């Protein structure tokens, strides 16, 4: 039947799986499958102890196939490949079967069904493993250079960090000068350092390093190649194109400020500003605040404008930085005019962590906070005297209706994803539900994207303050260096392979490839399709379109898929 | 060995830094004080906002940290000192704490854990349940190796001269493992029955319970253990007799020292023969100690423990010249002849008939000469235990009157308090500050004694006040029998010139090895130490056997440690460790003492099994591990190594990342919430354990009565944003972990209500607000208002008083059956002690200060030292990971910079 010796390990995942899937029954049902030499269950297959047990089994019983039935391969594919590797088994002779996300978690209402599904999935995994062959990863030598897109505070800091580790940097900024948003800021929280000072300090650091090349008025227009060895094209001043070869790309493209719609809390009328507009006003005043020639005495802040919208709206997310920024703006304004009256109308004050101290300080200095119900937002109107009247029900004073006549109303607006469609198209970056670029996993791989070798940091990933953006930029530096300092990367060999005997080059496959990984080559005097191994992602799109069945996907060959289907359909008894 | 970067702490931040730096090619030393890498995250259930299982996120990183070719992970280790050098690098001292389990042999099978007899609160389950002293921290531990927690020697075991593991057998009795307890005692001495009755039990004097309601009856527990075994085993059973070494050893004297030495030598495979001058073996056990204290059958049975090993005993033989035994084929000799003489009083009339030395008196009685003292007046001279024995024996022989004369006052009497009291109860009279001056007789037979009063003068050389006769206070009383008990001395006249002797007649030996001036002769027990306790003699016998064995094997005797013990634990710390010990009164000592008792049956009643278990249950497990050695016997890999000790090493590193994490706010500080008092008030961390896949129970239940809760309340900001506990900071994670738990509880207990009392819900991170809204949509009830206090009802339910802001700010009350305190984070200030020379700066709330967070997040006041994760301030997991990445980038840059510089 089978000349393979396969080890099958079924995980309880604490109770995550075994609460719904009868793992012992599953084990019995698959233990007799062709090729199965060992079938065991374990509390945590990912634990060190079970890994050790697998290692010993593989060595002692000379296993040449491994099936782990636990969670999603997103989590532990590399863990168990590592086990195989350490045991001397080719990592591609291992199959991950996901009986947690696909069985126990999805069928909590039907343990028997979940169990049966697990049996079928594992049988398919075993069938596939029976037909696996050893594969070697594709080794690509890495280029010790990084393209950083965006020269705001995150991009600048990333460039300096990369250069300090001996990597060359191409720093590309769309605007005419580097610095992004922060360059335009005065005092920033919580250390009261001025944004423009920080940027001058960083640009000076950039200038000191001759392995950083900064382009302004520039944009990334083309990217090809793969992790470790990308070819990129930078267009400068809308004309000249510069080609560069880099090992990784860090995207630090920043954010846009939310722009309220006309009439949103009175926006558009005199005396109603957004937070960035108000900050600019405060930063630019020498003494007391003046607005349109009048002295400002009463300021009302309205929080969460454009943020925390109800389900179904565009921006359901909290914009993270704005509570802190608004509280800090109030403190800065008080420095200019200690007599200023300030009223903050909020939903929840989110001065998280040490920023709570700013909030406390502002209250001690007389700044007033009123909490409104999200279903009864404040109303902003112009009154007869030309002042702005804000009416709000304050939950903190028994829902009393309060009217405030203000010289200025500050709409505390958050961050929104920047319009970046050009960049998104070039890099093929995915965006999340909130419209910001998406990381693979917030904890496991927080700066990586699904595009290998393309990393994200700063506010293009989600709202952050300046220091947080810098931290994530340095995390991206670390991630880049962990790949590029080694000198090579290993790519998945699970890619398309053309059988040149069968291929007659019709071009269908090349047409279907989303990565432009298929070209032509000469084989015995005729043209056949050829796969660029570093570019092919193994998506399999080309295999079914080939009219001559000349393309197979390594690791998921037609024979393997057929055997899996057969195994699925077997009676479970 | 040198490293590029030291990472202190292997929580999620430390692991992230270490792994990324390892990937870059730097050599990393990762030091973790717990037995497993992983920090606190691995103990969580799931993590917000993705609801990933914390184990699933952590375990791959943990395994990678342990296996990465460029990362050396040292667990159960502590950084002791970090000192910056002139070259910009750092000298680091690391201490590897002893786990007492050889990690290269341990397979993580948990047999030791299951056989362990000590239970302590399980800190990895936040004290919801207990763990053993031998343990694997948690199922996903990396490395999965057992650790035995030994905080030091327990005072009882530490103080035992013989090295009997008193705590060990107490713990075994507590678990009902009597046979194992007997075997443990037999690891030290064959005299379990005798010591269980006649030992003066220094252990009990040191028992920590002694400072509370009274010590454990450790000696009687030993008797209980011996009695249990002897009842079931007329003969001692050995699984396997040791293989013979072909060597022969002679033991001269069969007292406790000789018997113990013979036993251990026989266990080592040597052929042992004991020579005893008296007609029966046992030395003082048989001859001096009266049968009402130590029945002679018990001594006989104890001796069977040796004879079953093949030890031969020849009685009635006096060995005059031990050195000559070599010619009879003995390769070594152990001299343990004890102190067989009573010291003379040097008083007139001492040779009269009717004046007898205590040992002669007791020996005669013990060997069966129970001549009646009916109608006689007996005077005992001396204040030691032998004097008490003599007096009490005299009572039993029917004496009309028995009185003791002692030349100092009662306070100075060397006899044990309980012996004096027992003698008093049996009718013995005491005359203090009084001593005989002259024994008066007629025709060579004693008729009266002239005594003189004494007063205490200035202290003598020994520090005791010297008694001085009071002139003119002489007094004569008629006495029929005087028993003198004024001290014992060895009979070593025959060794004169053959061995080096001390002035007082004891044998001069090397105190460490007990070897005499003649290499193949060893000596121990009272003949070396002078008169002492049985248990001291046992100690000497054991020591002698150890060195004789080495001598016979041709091994060096010098510089070899014998009976290594850990330093004794501090009793104060033991008491502080108890989270609330119960008062457990000692079992009362009901000796049926009566005046004029006239039989020699055993006075002390045995402990019943119930009393024994109860008494053993009073043990506070001072040293944590009891040294019961059960793990040693069950470990299939022979991995247990009780001799393991801490190892310190010094390394040089190029840069340092401190990722020492946080401390949880101690919830009991908010007294109005009753944590620690009200059983159904738990912390958020405890709830996370209840929800974790490795949860202690199989469902969410309240600890008080195991009821599945149907109304759970959360109190946010417990210990955060709170000036009353000096922590105005927001802890950043509590809102979100509470929201996460809300979702998990609603999944696990679909019928339960969840109410969250909050100030502001701080769902500020990516995906957090949506996660919070999802919890609300699932039915979690969010009430804005601070909880002022909690009261406990009789059924364990809790009444919360709170300000109901959404409904007009009135003071309201609500009942819940489980309250979860969403405790916050506090700084772990231990990190500041690591640095010597230059100080690591703290911020005003004692987190590690970031000196340039705007541009260099993670940079500290010491160039080259970086901070990662919550050590510099509360952070959630994603922020900690990013922060750790930032620290790694800068540490690497620092290494590159200093590398160029040097």
TrEMBL record, chain A:
Required cofactor names: FAD
Xref: InterPro entries: 4Fe4S_Fe-S-bd, 4Fe4S_Fe_S_CS, FAD/NAD-bd_sf, HdrA-like
A UniProt-annotated Pfam family: FAD_oxidored
GO molecular function: 4 iron, 4 sulfur cluster binding; metal ion binding; oxidoreductase activity
Taxonomic superkingdom: Bacteria
Domain 4Fe-4S ferredoxin-type: 494-523, 527-556
Stated family: Belongs to the HdrA family.
PANTHER family: COB--COM HETERODISULFIDE REDUCTASE IRON-SULFUR SUBUNIT A, FERREDOXIN:COB-COM HETERODISULFIDE REDUCTASE SUBUNIT A
Protein name: 4Fe-4S ferredoxin
Source organism (scientific name): Desulfotomaculum copahuensis
Lineage summary: Bacteria, Bacillati, Bacillota, Clostridia, Eubacteriales
UniProtKB/TrEMBL annotation, chain B:
Record keyword Metal-binding present: yes
GO molecular function, one term: iron-sulfur cluster binding
Protein name in the entry: Glutamate synthase
Superkingdom, taxonomy of origin: Bacteria
Organism: Desulfotomaculum copahuensis
Domain 4Fe-4S ferredoxin-type: 97-126, 616-645
Disulfide bond found in the keyword field: no
UniProt cross-references to PANTHER family, sorted A to Z: GLUTAMATE SYNTHASE [NADPH] SMALL CHAIN, GLUTAMATE SYNTHASE [NADPH] SMALL CHAIN-RELATED
Keywords for this protein: Iron, Iron-sulfur, Metal-binding
Gene3D superfamilies: Alpha-helical ferredoxin (1.10.1060.10), FAD/NAD(P)-binding domain (3.50.50.60), NAD(P)-binding Rossmann-like Domain (3.40.50.720)
Record-linked InterPro entries: 4Fe4S_Fe-S-bd, 4Fe4S_Fe_S_CS, DPD_II, FAD/NAD-bd_sf, FAD/NAD-binding_dom, Helical_ferredxn
Record lineage: Bacteria, Bacillati, Bacillota, Clostridia, Eubacteriales
């Amino acid at each position: 039947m089978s000349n393979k010796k396969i080890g099958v390990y079924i995980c309880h995942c604490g109770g995550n799986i075994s609460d719904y899937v009868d793992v012992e029954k599953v084990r019995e049902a698959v233990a007799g499958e062709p090729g199965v030499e060992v079938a065991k269950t374990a509390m945590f297959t990912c634990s060190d102890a079970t890994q050790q047990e697998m290692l010993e089994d593989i060595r002692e019983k000379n296993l040449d196939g491994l099936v782990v039935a636990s969670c999603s391969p997103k989590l532990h594919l590399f863990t168990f490949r590592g086990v195989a590797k350490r045991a001397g088994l080719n990592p591609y002779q291992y199959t991950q079967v996901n009986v947690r996300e696909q069985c126990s978690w999805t069928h909590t209402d039907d343990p028997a069904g979940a169990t049966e599904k697990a049996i079928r999935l594992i049988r398919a995994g075993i069938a596939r493993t029976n037909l696996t062959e050893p594969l070697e990863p594709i080794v690509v030598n890495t280029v010790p250079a990084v393209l950083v897109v965006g020269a705001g505070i995150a991009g600048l800091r990333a460039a300096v960090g990369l250069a300090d580790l001996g990597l060359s940097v191409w720093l590309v900024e769309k605007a005419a000068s580097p610095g992004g948003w922060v360059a335009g800021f005065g005092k920033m929280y919580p250390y009261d350092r001025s944004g423009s000072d920080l940027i001058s300090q960083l640009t000076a650091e950039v200038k000191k390093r001759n392995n950083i090349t900064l382009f302004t008025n520039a944009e990334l227009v083309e990217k090809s190649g793969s992790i470790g060895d990308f070819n990129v094209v930078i267009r400068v001043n809308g004309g000249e194109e510069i080609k560069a070869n880099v090992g990784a790309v860090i995207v630090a493209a920043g954010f846009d400020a939310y722009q309220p719609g006309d009439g949103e809390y009175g926006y558009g009328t005199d005396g109603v500003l957004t937070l960035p507009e108000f900050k600019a006003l405060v930063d630019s005043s020498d003494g007391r605040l003046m607005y349109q020639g009048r002295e400002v005495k009463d300021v009302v802040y309205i929080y969460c404008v454009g943020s925390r919208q109800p389900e179904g709206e565009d921006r359901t997310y909290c914009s993270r930085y704005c509570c802190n920024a608004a509280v800090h703006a109030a403190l800065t304004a008080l420095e200019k005019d200690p007599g200023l009256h300030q009223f903050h109308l909020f939903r929840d004050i989110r001065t998280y962590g040490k920023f709570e101290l700013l909030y406390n300080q502002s209250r001690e200095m007389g700044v007033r906070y009123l909490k409104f119900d999200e279903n009864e937002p404040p109303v902003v109107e112009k009154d007869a005297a030309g002042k702005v009247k804000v009416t709000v029900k304050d939950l903190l004073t028994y829902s009393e209706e309060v009217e405030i006549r203000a010289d200025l109303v500050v709409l505390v607006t958050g961050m929104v994803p920047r319009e970046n469609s050009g960049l998104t198209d070039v890099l093929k970056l995915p965006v999340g539900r909130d419209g910001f670029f998406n990381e693979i996993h917030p904890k496991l791989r927080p700066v990586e994207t699904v595009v290998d070798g393309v990393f994200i940091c700063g506010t293009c990933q989600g709202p952050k303050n300046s220091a947080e953006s810098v931290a994530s930029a340095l995390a991206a530096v670390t991630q880049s260096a962990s790949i590029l300092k080694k000198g090579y990367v290993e790519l998945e060999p699970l890619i398309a392979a053309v059988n040149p005997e069968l291929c007659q080059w019709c071009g269908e496959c090349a047409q279907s490839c989303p990565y432009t990984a298929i070209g032509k080559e000469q084989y015995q005097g005729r043209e056949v399709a050829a796969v660029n191994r570093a570019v092919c992602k193994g998506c399999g799109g080309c295999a079914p379109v080939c009219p001559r069945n000349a393309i197979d996907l390594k690791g998921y060959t037609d024979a393997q898929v057929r055997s899996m289907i057969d195994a699925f359909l077997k009676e479970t008894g | 060995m040198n490293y590029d970067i030291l990472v202190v702490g292997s929580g999620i931040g430390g692991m992230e830094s270490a792994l990324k730096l390892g990937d870059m090619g730097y050599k990393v030393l990762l030091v973790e004080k717990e037995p497993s890498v992983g920090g606190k995250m691995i103990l969580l259930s799931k993590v917000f906002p993705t609801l990933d299982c914390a184990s699933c996120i952590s375990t791959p990183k943990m395994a990678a940290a342990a296996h990465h070719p460029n990362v050396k992970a040292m667990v159960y280790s502590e950084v002791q000192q970090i000192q910056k050098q002139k070259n910009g690098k750092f000298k680091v001292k690391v201490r590897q704490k002893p786990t007492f389990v050889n990690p290269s042999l341990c397979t993580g099978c948990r047999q030791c854990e299951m056989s362990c007899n000590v239970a302590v609160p399980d800190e990895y389950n936040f004290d919801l349940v207990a763990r053993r002293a031998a343990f694997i921290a948690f199922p996903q531990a990396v490395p999965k190796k057992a650790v035995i927690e030994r905080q030091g020697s327990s005072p009882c075991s530490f103080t035992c001269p013989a090295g009997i593991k008193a705590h060990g057998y107490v713990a075994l009795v507590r678990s009902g493992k009597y046979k194992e307890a007997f075997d443990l005692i037999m690891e030290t001495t064959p005299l379990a029955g005798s010591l269980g009755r006649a030992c003066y039990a220094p252990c009990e004097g040191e028992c920590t319970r002694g400072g509370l309601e009274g010590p454990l009856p450790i000696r009687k527990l030993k008797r209980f253990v011996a009695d249990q075994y002897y009842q079931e085993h007329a003969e001692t059973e050995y699984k396997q007799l040791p293989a013979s070494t072909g060597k022969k050893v002679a033991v001269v004297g069969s007292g406790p020292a000789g018997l113990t030495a013979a036993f251990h030598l026989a266990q080592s495979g040597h052929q042992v023969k004991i020579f005893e001058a008296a007609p029966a073996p046992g030395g003082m056990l048989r001859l001096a100690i009266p049968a009402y204290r130590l029945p002679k059958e018990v001594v006989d049975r104890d001796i069977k423990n040796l004879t079953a090993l093949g030890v031969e005993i020849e009685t009635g033989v006096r060995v005059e010249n031990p050195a000559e035994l070599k010619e009879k084929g003995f390769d070594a000799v152990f001299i343990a002849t004890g102190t067989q003489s009573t010291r003379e009083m040097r008083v007139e009339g001492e040779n009269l008939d009717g004046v007898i030395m205590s040992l002669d008196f007791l020996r005669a009685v013990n060997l069966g000469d129970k001549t009646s003292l009916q109608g006689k007046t007996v005077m005992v001279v001396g204040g030691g235990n032998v004097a008490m024995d003599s007096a009490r024996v005299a009572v039993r022989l029917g004496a009309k009157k028995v009185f003791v004369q002692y030349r100092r006052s009662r306070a100075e009497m060397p006899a044990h308090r309980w012996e004096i009291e027992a003698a008093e109860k049996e009718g013995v009279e005491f005359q203090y500050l009084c001593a005989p001056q002259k024994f008066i007789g007629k025709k060579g037979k004693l008729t009266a004694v002239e005594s003189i009063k004494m007063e205490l003068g200035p202290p003598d050389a020994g520090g005791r006040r010297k008694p001085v006769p009071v002139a003119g206070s002489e007094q004569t009383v008629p006495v029929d029998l005087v028993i003198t008990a004024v001290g014992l001395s060895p009979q070593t006249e025959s060794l004169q010139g053959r061995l080096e002797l001390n002035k007082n007649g004891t044998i001069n030996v090397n105190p460490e090895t007990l070897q005499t001036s003649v290499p193949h002769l060893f000596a121990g027990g009272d003949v070396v130490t002078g008169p002492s306790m049985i248990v001291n003699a046992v100690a000497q016998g054991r020591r002698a056997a150890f060195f004789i064995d080495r001598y016979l094997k041709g091994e060096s005797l010098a510089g070899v440690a014998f009976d290594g013990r850990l330093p004794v634990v501090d009793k104060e710390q033991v008491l502080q460790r108890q989270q609330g010990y119960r008062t457990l009164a000692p079992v009362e000592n009901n000796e049926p003492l009566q005046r004029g008792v006239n039989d020699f049956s055993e006075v002390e009643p045995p402990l019943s099994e119930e009393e024994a278990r109860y008494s053993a249950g009073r043990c506070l497990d001072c040293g944590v591990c009891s040294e019961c050695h059960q793990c040693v016997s069950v470990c299939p890999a022979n991995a247990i190594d009780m001799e393991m000790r801490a190892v310190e090493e010094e390394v040089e590193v190029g840069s340092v990342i401190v990722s020492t994490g946080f401390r949880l706010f101690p919830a009991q500080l908010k007294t109005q919430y009753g944590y620690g008092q009200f059983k159904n008030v738990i912390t958020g961390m405890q709830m996370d354990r209840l929800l974790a896949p490795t949860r202690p129970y199989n469902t969410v239940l309240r600890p008080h009565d195991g009821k599945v809760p149907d109304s759970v309340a959360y109190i946010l900001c417990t210990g955060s944003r709170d000036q009353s506990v000096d922590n105005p900071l927001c802890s950043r994670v509590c809102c979100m972990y509470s929201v996460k738990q809300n979702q998990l509880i609603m999944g696990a207990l679909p019928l339960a209500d969840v109410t969250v009392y909050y100030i502001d819900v701080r769902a500020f991170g990516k995906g957090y607000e949506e996660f919070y809204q999802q919890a609300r949509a699932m039915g979690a009830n969010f009430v804005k208002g601070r909880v002022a206090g909690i009261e406990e009802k009789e059924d364990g339910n809790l009444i919360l008083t709170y300000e109901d802001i959404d409904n007009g700010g009135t003071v309201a009350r609500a009942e819940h059956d489980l309250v979860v305190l969403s405790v916050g984070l506090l700084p772990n200030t231990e990190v500041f002690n690591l640095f010597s020379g230059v100080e690591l700066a703290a911020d005003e709330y004692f987190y590690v200060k970031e000196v340039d967070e705007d541009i260099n997040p993670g940079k500290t006041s010491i160039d080259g030292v970086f901070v990662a994760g919550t050590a510099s301030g509360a952070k959630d997991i994603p922020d900690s990971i990013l922060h750790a990445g930032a620290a790694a980038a800068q540490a690497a840059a620092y290494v590159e910079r200093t590398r160029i510089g040097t």
